[in-house]
Design a protein that fits this description.
Elements: H1 2-8, H2 13-66, E1 73-74, E2 80-81, E3 84-86, E4 90-95, E5 110-117, E6 120-126, E7 138-144, E8 146-154, E9 160-161, E10 181-188, E11 192-199, H3 216-220, E12 242-243
Antiparallel strand pairs: 1-2, 3-4, 4-5, 5-6, 6-7, 8-9, 8-10, 10-11, 11-12
Length: about 240
């Protein structure tokens, strides 16, 4: 009788196989659910990162547009250029509020340009306003995966223009030197067409460029306004974007 009891207390091979099969099925189901959760988390994180890049790009653009100032420049050949000149797919302007935490001998004004190169939205900046032939811009890719860049300019009569300026505007204080608003549309594969309208706050003219080698403001610095950093993250002023 004791022999029969010892034989009946163990598991048979069939029972072990069934238990292993059930465990394997449960493991596969659990792994599949875990993988789905992890993939969803990764997709959400990637989407959030791309959205943050788009928002940062518009914040930097808004700061530049809203701090545009009526300060014409001289190009590499000594010719005068308007304070702002733009087309449907590119823009160059003079802006203020360029912070200078290191106290460098330079102006608080900065020349900034936007253009689309390939599928990258580029922001170019110059260290001086009145350039020489050796002046090279610093290029920063604000946003990747851009399919189209479109710009429009709102004049004082509330009419949209595809280019700026609409007339001669190479002297400080010239009528129509700056628009009252700029609309920028960026088309990406991920987000489609995103449009923002930024106001341009009119400011006092910042003076006439004195020569092809740079004005006294650029050569010696601006005692009243040396205020900026070296990259887009160091820009001063309010973001102030208004969606359309």
């Amino acid at each position: 009788m004791s022999t029969r009891l010892r034989r009946s207390t163990g598991f048979t091979l069939l029972e072990l196989l069934i238990a292993l099969a059930i465990f394997a099925i449960m493991s596969v189901v659990a792994y599949g659910g875990l993988r789905t959760v992890l993939e969803a988390r990764d997709r959400a994180a990637a989407s959030a990162d791309r959205l943050a890049e788009l928002q940062l790009a518009f914040t930097i653009i808004g700061r530049d547009f809203e701090q545009a100032i009526d300060r014409p420049i001289r190009d590499e050949f000594g010719d005068r250029e308007p304070a702002m000149q733009g087309t449907e797919d590119g823009l160059e302007l003079t802006r203020g509020g360029w912070r200078n935490p290191a106290g460098l001998q330079r102006s608080e004004l900065q020349r900034v340009a936007y253009s689309l190169e390939g599928e990258e939205l580029l922001r170019q900046t110059w260290q001086v306003l009145d350039r020489t032939q050796g002046s090279e811009p610093r290029s920063t890719a604000l946003l990747a995966g851009v399919e189209e860049l479109s710009l429009r300019y709102l004049d004082a009569n509330r009419e949209w223009r595809d280019f700026w300026p609409t007339g001669p505007a190479t002297m400080p204080g010239a009528e129509g030197a700056l628009p009252i608003g700029i609309e920028i549309s960026i088309t990406t594969e991920r987000w489609g067409r995103v449009t923002r309208l930024f106001r341009v706050v009119p400011g006092a003219p910042a003076g006439l460029p004195e020569g092809p080698g740079g004005s006294q403001e650029e050569q010696g610095g601006d005692e009243a306004g040396d205020q900026t950093g070296t990259g887009p993250d160091d820009e001063g002023g309010p973001a102030g974007a208004e969606g359309t």
